[in-house]
Amino acid sequence: MSHDLVVGIDLGTTFSAIAYINSYGKSEIIPNREGERTTPSMIFFEHDGTPVVGREARNLAMTDPTRVVQFLKREMGNPSYRFNIDGRDYFPEDLSAMLLKKLKNDAEEYLGKEIKKVVISVPAYFKDAQRECTKQAGQIAGLEVLRIINEPTAAALAYGMGRSEHSKQYVMVYDFGGGTFDVTLMKINGNRFEILATIGDSHLGGKDVDEGIVNYLAQEFIDTYGIDLRKDRRSRQDLWDKAEIAKRDLSFRNQLALTLVHKDQALRVDLDRQSFGELIHDVVTKTEDYMNKVLEATQLEWKDVDTILLAGGSSRIPVVQDMIKRVTGKEAARTLNPDECVAMGAAIQSFILTEDECENRVSNELTDTLKRLVIKDIASHSLGVKALTADQSSFVNSIIIPRYTTLPVERTRYYATSEDNQQKVEIEVLQGEHEDPNSPEIDLIGRVQITDLPPHKAGELVIEVTLKYDLNGVIEVVATEQKSGKVIREVVMQKSGSLSKEIIEERKQLLDLLRL
After folding, report:
1. What is an example of a GO molecular function annotated in this UniProt entry (predicted)?
2. What is the DSSP letter of 285?
3. What confidence tens digit (pLDDT) does each residue in 456-510 have?
């Protein structure tokens, strides 16, 4: 193989996709070895421990649902998540690496070229731990992760390529995926993409839509036979499969019939589009609330928004599109495939980051266009530290970088010791908006500790805290002890749950031994 390719990957909750910039300068989806343009984000472990990824895993799920991993994206960055199979624990980054390795291997087989570098998309509302976990998954899969790109930014890149450089518009990206939701407002002015605000929920998505259908089908069977199919693992998996079929089919059909079977009992359940809309009303209303909140954050009005872009398969649902039209007064643009646009935009970003390596593969015209692209992304969450109030009565989340600050950014704040001859200072770095550092809405990013402080009066010794937030949305923190303006020592934050290079390499070697 020669001429290593860079690619963009949309690592989705239910489906994933991979794309690259072809020799004509177009972003193109790479089909998997089954010939499909998206790959189910599902893993099935054979009884010998071999992981099977994608469509085959989905087909095997009914044989033993306890050996299936799905909806993994919701567990990214969750330190307590373990998938235990045959006495072995797998962590979110290990399992996600299997999905990435499958996409990588299939793409290499299709294109006949090696893939070493990648841009991976994440929901705009992902926090630091979730982004870090995604990056580590890429490294375990043997990929150099050039950038973690926000999904709405990727979708906008896919939309913006090839459009007039002179066009100026406000664009809303409604990203309703399998397990996550976010809505983003941005300004596109020629080749300049400026993110204004984003908000969302990493535990709201198509899975919640499916769950509404699952509960409806289960209740129909209970009413007829008095049996709850959700209590049987195979029947429960069948309910989820039927729910996904219903969600997809009712996006282009007015009604359908589903057959539920348990032992020698069978039931036909008819479901139409109107009933489907009623089942998922609460989920859709939540996304509507987020739309209004993001508009409020930008101080725009709906009449100011020129274009609505859809990303994520759940955005196809008719009741969702009806709601968007009712709220905004506009039809969503239909120029992009919601299942593919994020991967295509990530591929464009990968090309931008490696344009010097890629110039010979595509036209000079495209290269010149990409060189002029400017992407101004933002911090989706505030960053701060746990600090005492002035009267020393309580701790607060002292925000240093407010949310919606343009990235990259570096901010510094100074804090003084609170006691005479204080021996040490421990700085807890926080992410979130709530004033209370103990709120469940606040995430601990990591700690910085400086010990063996010299003798001093309370308030005399100053600690300089510098927070750096890069274009990947990844955070670095440096604490510097100062006395009379002289830097005494510098300590870099140790992140919570971050894997060492040695552990990543060890897990990469284990993954290389597996047949995917």
Report:
1. ATP binding
2. H
3. 888 888 888 888 888 876 788 888 887 655 555 555 565 666 788 888 888 888 8
Nearest to 341 by CA among 163, 471, 132, 152: 152
Alpha carbon distance 295, 17 (integer Å): 30
Cα of first residue to Cα of last residue in the chain, in angstroms, is: 20
User: In what side-by-side order are the strands of the sheet with 374-376?
Assistant: 307-311, 168-176, 181-189, 192-201, 374-376
- Give the torsion sign (CA, 312, 318, 322, 325): positive
Partners of residue 130 on adjacent β-strands: none
Token pair listed for 275 = 């009933």
Which has the closest alpha carbon to 305: 313, 316, 294, 317? 294
Instruction: Label residue 409 exposed, middle or buried (CB < 10 Å: 0-12, 13-18, 19+).
Output: middle
373: its two tokens: 């692209």
CA distance 363 to 25: 7
Domains of the chain, CATH where assigned:
5-204+285-377 (3.30.420.40), 206-281 (3.90.640.10), 383-495 (2.60.34.10)
Residue type, 68: V
Residues 339/178, Cβ–Cβ less than 8 Å = no
Tokens at 439, concatenated: 């709120």
- Which residues have a catalytic role annotated? 10, 73, 151, 175
Is the pTM of the predicted complex or chain greater than 0.70?
Answer: yes
Q: What amino acid is encoded at 35 in this protein?
A: G
